[in-house]
Amino acid sequence: MNYRHIYHAGNFADVWKHLVLVALLDALKQKDKAFCYLDTHAGIGRYNLDAEQARKTAEADQGIGRLSQHTHLPELLQRYLQLVEQCRAEQPQSYPGSPWLAAMLRRPQDSLILNELHPEDQQQLTELFKGQRQVSLRREDAYQSLQACLPPTEKRGLVLIDPPFEQDNEFKKLAEAIQKAHKRWPTGCYAIWYPIKDRREVMQLHRRLTLSGIRKILLAELHVKAAEQGVFSGSGMLIINPPWQLQERLQPAGEWLRQTLGQDDQAKLVLEWLVPE
Ligand SMILES: C[S@@+](CC[C@H](N)C(=O)[O-])C[C@H]1O[C@@H](n2cnc3c(N)ncnc32)[C@H](O)[C@@H]1O
């Protein structure tokens, strides 16, 4: 396990992923009934962008760093940036990871399950959430935690699957894990992140899921530059069972991000059904 998210925190892919996450959590709060949020690859929860590792890659400069000084933003972006500001008020120069955002947005009745396998990262995550009610911390393989935690007792909620893609077979393992999880809990909402770097792998993931029989899969990709084999040119989220009107809420924010984070004239936003209802 060499991957450490601190090197990538706040980059263009994090911005897109976390914006989508905020929209999904907001949608869950439309009903009073409690929900469960499961983060299978949680990371450390909150990242210091001044840390040596983050400065070494400076990836945040092309992501969150390009968003701070704008006005007249689409509503969802404003909301996301307010949360980033809130995180910075807690710890200067920080950037919120997915667990931090979920913890900030959940209500007292909602529960969080945060799983992280890396021992040091899991330790930091535990420290950040120490003493918080309704938070359960796990340290096991992500795909095991999907099996162990689904379906949640609340019977409604969101699963974020955000692997590091450091193993060659991650795309294949991911597709298999999604199918198994969906069998255990077909009505849950799933948000699955992937990098757009190897187009063939991405196409195969799409094909596997299209053939899996799972319905209602929304594709949400933000490409910041022209696709080139082996170059990290964008990122995608597959959203199974998306909430009503998610696409409409993501569209203006995604379009704004395309214009602001785009690095050439091939930057594009893709928001469409991979598999409709
Ligand atoms: C992309 S990062 C997660 C970022 C986090 N979801 C966020 O948005 O703030 C992936 C994380 O998965 C962890 N990880 C790697 N292999 C894992 C596995 N098999 N099971 C669980 N976690 C794993 C890594 O240590 C890393 O912290």
From TrEMBL:
Reaction it catalyzes: adenosine(2030) in 23S rRNA + S-adenosyl-L-methionine = N(6)-methyladenosine(2030) in 23S rRNA + S-adenosyl-L-homocysteine + H(+)
Pfam families the UniProt entry points to: RsmJ (PF04378)
Location of the active site: 162 (proton acceptor)
Record's keyword terms, sorted: Methyltransferase, RNA-binding, rRNA processing, S-adenosyl-L-methionine, Transferase
Domain of life: Bacteria
Keyword Transferase: yes
Single GO MF annotation: 23S rRNA (adenine(2030)-N(6))-methyltransferase activity
EC number: 2.1.1.266
InterPro entries: RlmJ (IPR007473), SAM-dependent_MTases_sf (IPR029063)
Residues with site note (Interaction with substrate rRNA): 3
Annotated residues for binding of S-adenosyl-L-methionine: 18, 41, 98, 116, 141-142, 162
Alphabetized PANTHER family for the sequence: RIBOSOMAL RNA LARGE SUBUNIT METHYLTRANSFERASE J
HAMAP family recorded: 23SrRNA_methyltr_J (MF_00934)
Quaternary organization: Monomer.
UniProt function note: Specifically methylates the adenine in position 2030 of 23S rRNA.
Similarity-based family: Belongs to the RlmJ family.
Official protein name in the record: Ribosomal RNA large subunit methyltransferase J
Organism for this UniProt entry: Balneatrix alpica
